[in-house]
Design a protein that fits this description.
By secondary structure, the protein is an alpha/beta fold. It is built from eight helices and seven strands; from the N terminus they run ααααβαβαββαβαββ. InterPro entries: Methyltransf_25, Methyltransf_Superfamily, SAM-dependent_MTases_sf.
């Protein structure tokens, strides 16, 4: 749930400067009506990331898996997962207006508002997969959110996330800490285009959760 190309204009600049959940809620509520077009462009083909992540999830998990789409925005990832045959997908986002647009797609089992900089709602060890696409940019989710992702995924499940260059090193260091604590391990990474029109890249990282929730504690 982040930014990009030229059509996003002022929203993109404001998104990079967010400092609180209240600011994020206000910004994304305002952006919701044009968000899809701003990201994907007028022809709808300039934001392939949701489909790429859905392809990864489909390769890793049975279609019966419970999936949590964190920072789901308007539901682009949920729609891509539905095209792959996933039917048990929940979504969380800070913006109620984004959630309203996601709900209209009718591809989510459950949707709810959440300050994702805090605790992720949901029972421990519940999900087979957590997806988090384009939500670790500057001003967005804290690195500590990864610990919460691991908490709600059962052992042997996966976290599939994307991160851009602005926070790549920081997130990689945090993932290394999780691996050292035997909470989660990296099973694969790849570089993909965030927007073909700009050539900007994101890393898609797949983590396997190797600890039950009892072994998952916050990392400072």
């Amino acid at each position: 749930m982040e930014t990009e190309p030229d059509g996003a204009g002022t929203y993109a600049a404001r998104a990079r400067a967010l400092t609180s959940a209240d600011e994020a809620r206000e910004l994304y509520d305002a952006w919701a009506p044009t968000y899809d077009t701003d990201l994907a462009g007028p022809d709808g083909d300039d934001y392939p990331l949701p489909g790429i992540v859905a392809d990864v999830v489909a390769r890793l998990q049975d279609r019966s898996a419970d999936v949590l789409d964190v920072a789901c925005g308007t539901g682009l990832v949920g729609a891509a997962l539905a095209r792959q045959g996933f039917r048990s997908v929940d979504g969380l986002d800070v913006s109620r207006r984004m959630l309203a647009r996601a709900r209209a797609r009718q591809v989510y089992h459950d949707l709810g508002p959440a300050d994702l900089g805090q605790r992720v709602p949901g029972a421990a060890d519940k999900f087979g997969v957590v997806t988090c696409v384009n939500a670790f940019g500057t001003g967005h989710l804290p690195r500590s959110a990864l610990v919460e992702f691991a908490r709600v995924v059962h052992r042997g499940g996966h976290v599939v996330l994307t991160v851009g260059d602005d926070r790549r090193d920081e997130i990689e260091r945090h993932v290394q800490q999780l691996a050292a604590r035997r909470v989660a391990r990296v099973v694969e990474t790849s570089e993909v285009l965030l927007h073909p029109s700009t050539g900007e890249q994101h890393v898609v990282a797949v983590l396997e959760v190797v600890a039950s929730s009892a072994g998952v504690r916050p990392v400072r």
